[in-house]
Structure formats: C-alpha cells, structure tokens
Amino acid sequence: MMTLEPLDTTDLGDKYEDWVRFIARTHHAANPRTNQVAPFTPLSKPLSDSRVALLTTAGAHLDDQAPFQVATVAGDHTYRLIPDDVELGRLRFTHTHYDTSSAEQDPNVVIPLDRLHELVERGRVGSASPVHVGMMGFNPDPTGVADELAPAVAGVLLEAQVDVAILVPG
Amino acid sequence: MCHRSVGLVQGEIERAGIPTVSLSVRPEVTYGMNVPRAAYLRFPHGNPLGEPDRPEQHHVILEALLRLLETATGAPTLVELPVRWKRWEPWL
C-alpha cells in the first residue's frame, strides 16, 4: 500500500501559499450558496394545458452564439436562448466538466427537445416554450449565478409565458 | 457543480411563480440545494436523460419528471428513479 508523504513545500516559496489561497477562494465548498428555504409553486393547470421550457447547465448554445467561458476561475453565468424550432445539429456544448460526446451525438440526452415535441404531439403536455435556455454550470463562485443569472432566466420564462420548467444538469 | 447552478436557477424560477422540476445525477448536492422537486438517478454526467438515440429511455425519465410535477405536494420533494445505467460502474 502506498504511503503518502507530506509534500515538502520549502522550495516553492510564495507559489504554494498562493495555490492554497487560490483553492480556498475558488473551491465550491468555500462559496456555499443555496436556497435557504425550498420554494414551492403548485401546478395551476394540467400539464396537458401547460407550456413547457427546457433548461440545461450542460453548456448548450447555438453554433452562431458565443461559447461559454470554461477556462476561468470566475465561471460563466451568462445564458443562451435556444429557439424551440432549432435544428439540433446546430447545438454545441461548451463544458469541460463532463464528457460532451453523448450530447454532441444526440442533444436530447441533456436538452430533450425532440422528446418534448413528441410529448406535445401526444397531448401529454400542452405546448413547448418558444425559447429554451442553455447555461454552463461550472461556477466555483456562485454569486453571479444566484444574483444575476437566476433572476434573468426567471424573467425570460415569465416573458415567454412558460407554465412549467424542466432543468437538466451537465 | 452543475447541480448547484441548477439548484440556484430552479429556486429563483419557482419563487417567480413557475413550477419546476429538475433531474440530478448528484443527489447529495441536489439535496443541499433545497430545490422544490427533483428526481435523481445514478447516470454519468453528460447523460442525465440516458444514452444517445434511445428515445424510449429518455421518455421514461421525462415521464417520471412530469409525474413528480403532478404529484408533489410540497417542497422539497426528492425522489430516486429506479432506472439503471447500461452497466455498473464503480464511479456511478
């Protein structure tokens, strides 16, 4: 069994201290943020009468939209609007914290647009929202997500008169 | 960390008056986010709805999410989906 010796940091000078501070600052455990209380809005109408929106933090965006910033400590708390009638081949997935090959092969595994349209056809849900939302979930500092992204996305859904939202992680 | 971002966005949408449900492959994170409704399953990151080009699998999971919307009576409601990935992996 391998024994782990403590790392000798004497030669690293300030670099080691900088690294420890960097990790402490950016590790998600150092920046806890959550819903203090679980909110609840009951369904006000049957799903068969409801307009449904899909949202994902899998880094989904259109081929002509800017990709998400994945290589920065600050994360990326912007969103992309994905039209309901998008041709799925135009979707791209910018994310370094999961294997995007399945999503590239079939975007339905993270943003099930075809499946939603099938559900509308079958009458299981009323309609699809005209816009869906792509986000990138890797944000070590959640402040931007909580204070800017979340209210902005809620506003988008209210404006689109969405009745129900389904969220899928990357 | 996607699950924390999902949780924060989901909470805000619910507070805005739109019922929500989310999928999770990291229930321990989702649990701590106090989301209104979530269903979790031990699938790999990147495949929350299942494997590519398997519509029937995606529909099973989606239907579970819709039923959760219809049947949850309060928040938080977190349920485990009895769906298994194609093969057991120790890291799932």
What does this structure look like?
- The complex is a heterodimer of chains A (170) and B (92).
- With 170 residues, chain A is of the alpha/beta class.
- Chain A has helices spanning 14-26, 101-105, 113-122, 143-159, and strands spanning 51-56, 60-62, 79-83, 91-93, 127-128, 131-135, 164-168.
- The mean pLDDT of chain A is 92.
- A 3-stranded parallel beta sheet of chain B has the order 1-2-3, sandwiched between helices.
- Chain B is globular.
- In chain B, 51% of the residues are buried.
- Classes of the chains: A alpha/beta (170), B alpha/beta (92).
- At the A-B interface, helix 2, helix 3, helix 4 and strand 7 of A face helix 1, strand 1 and helix 3 of B.
- Strand 7 of chain A pairs parallel with strand 1 of chain B, so a sheet runs across the interface.
Q: What is the end-to-end distance of chain B?
A: 16 Å
Rg calc of chain B: 13 Å
Mean of pLDDT of chain A? 92
**Number of helices, counting only DSSP H or I runs of 4 residues or more of chain A:** 4
Regions of chain A with pLDDT < 50 over 5+ consecutive residues? none
Give, in spatial order, the strands making up the sheet with the most strands of chain B.
Answer: 1-2-3
Order of helices and strands of chain B: HEHEHE
What is Rg of chain A? 20 Å
Oligomer: heterodimer
> What does the largest sheet of chain B look like?
3 strands, parallel
Overall outline of chain B: globular
The major sheet of chain A is characterized as: 5 strands, mixed
- Helix/strand/pairing class of chain B, anyone? alpha/beta
Per DSSP E runs of 2 or more residues, the count of β-strands of chain B stands at: 3
* Cα end-to-end separation of chain A: 35 Å
The level of helicity of chain A is: 25-40%
Order of helices and strands of chain A: HEEEEHHEEHE
